[in-house]
Amino acid sequence: MSRHIPRKRFGQNFLQDPRTIEDIVDAVNPARDDLVVEIGPGLGAITRPLLARLNHLHVVEIDRDIIARLRRTFTATQLTIHEGDALAFDFAALGTPLKIVGNLPYNISTPLLFHLASFGTQVTDMHFMLQKEVVDRMVAEPGTADYGRLSVMLQYRFYMERMLDVPPEAFDPPPKVDSAVVRMIPHPTLPHQAQDEQQLAHIVQVAFAQRRKTLRNNLKGVLDDEGFATLGIDPGIRPENLPVGGFVAICNYLTAQPGGAV
Ligand code: SAM
Predict the structure, then answer these.
(1) pLDDT per residue rounded down to tens, the chain (262 residues)
(2) Ligand 1 pocket check for 105: Cβ under 6 Å
(3) Ligand 1 near 34 CB (within 6 A)
(4) Best of 8, 15, 21, 61 to mutate for ligand 1, by most ligand atoms within 8 A of CB?
């Protein structure tokens, strides 16, 4: 087959380091009958070793040239190819329980993570290669500079673990940034349950609108000092110092107020 010219607009950095590929597949550790979907199979660096351990694999790919190559390489019994944008893909339609894997296109990683989080209840686990800086933000603890909207919204639903750091040389072409692999496992029972998850997303967005300002300032018009006092939350702290449970408490307090959502 002729060489595929990597497309920047689809975030195409193909894994080439055998050790990294093996480590990812070991981390996923699929059983033969598992229901697994890979996002962005590309030239098959992870697809091939996954298929060696699976009876069948689903993939979601946007690039038509790559899809044609995949059709020439794998049989339909081995691989079901879903053509299109992972951002719009209904992962729930594949069935449950589902394992999701991908060396993700970095240019859409944040919206893709939010899209994938909405399938939390159908999923056993997810393993993703991402820009290292994004993984830092996902797993960040409160009180650190990396803790923000992404940390709160993902930690609300998932237990997350950094699996390995990956240097640019592991890819062809090498990306300009370091990468890391993260494991996401949905909490069997949410440690803090928001009564209204849309409200939670809204509050977290507003609370972090200006990181260097206090919660009181960011939540002006949303939560008054009486509300902060009832909840036992210091309005003078910055949003990065409030743990996930604090955001959920604010959300549930507001949901319970006459008039409900903000
Ligand atoms: N898995 C391969 C590997 O590890 O070498 C390729 C990884 S490459 C970083 C990202 C892959 O995602 C490419 O195959 C790209 O075409 C595909 N892709 C990019 N945007 C996508 C989207 N919105 N939906 C589905 N696939 C996408």
Answers:
(1) 788 999 999 999 999 999 999 999 999 999 999 999 999 999 999 999 999 999 999 999 999 999 999 999 999 999 999 999 999 999 999 999 999 999 999 999 999 999 999 999 999 999 999 999 999 999 999 999 999 999 999 999 999 999 999 999 999 999 999 999 999 999 999 999 999 999 999 999 999 999 999 999 999 999 999 999 999 999 999 999 999 999 999 999 999 987 765 5
(2) yes
(3) no
(4) 61
Q: What is the CA radius of gyration of the chain?
A: 20
- Is the domain of 142 the same as that of 202? no
Q: Is the CB of 179 under 6 A from ligand 1?
A: no
Nearest atom within ligand 1 for CA of residue 40: 12
Structure tokens at 142: 């409160």
Domain, as residue range, for 68: 8-186
Q: Counting atoms of ligand 1 from 1, which one is nearest the CA of 7? A: 16
Domain shared by 204 and 225, yes or no: yes
Residues 168, 59 share a domain: yes
Are 36 and 97 found together in one domain? yes
| pTM assigned to the model | 0.95
Domain closes at, from 166, 186, 206 = 186
Rounded-to-integer distance, Cα 193 and Cα 260, Å: 16
Among 252, 150, 162, 250, residue whose Cα is nearest residue 205: 150
Q: Quick check: is 2 in a domain?
A: no
Largest CA distance in the chain: 68
Which of 161, 186, 211 is the C-terminal boundary of a domain?
186
* CB of residue 109 inside a 6 A radius of ligand 1: no
Q: Is there a domain that residue 126 lies in?
A: yes
Q: Which of 73, 241, 228, 237 is nearest to 144 (CA)?
A: 241
| Residue whose entry in the numeric block shows the structure tokens 């996401």 | 184
**Does residue 12's CB lie within 6 angstroms of at least one atom of ligand 1?**
yes
Closest Cα to atom 22, ligand 1: which residue?
85
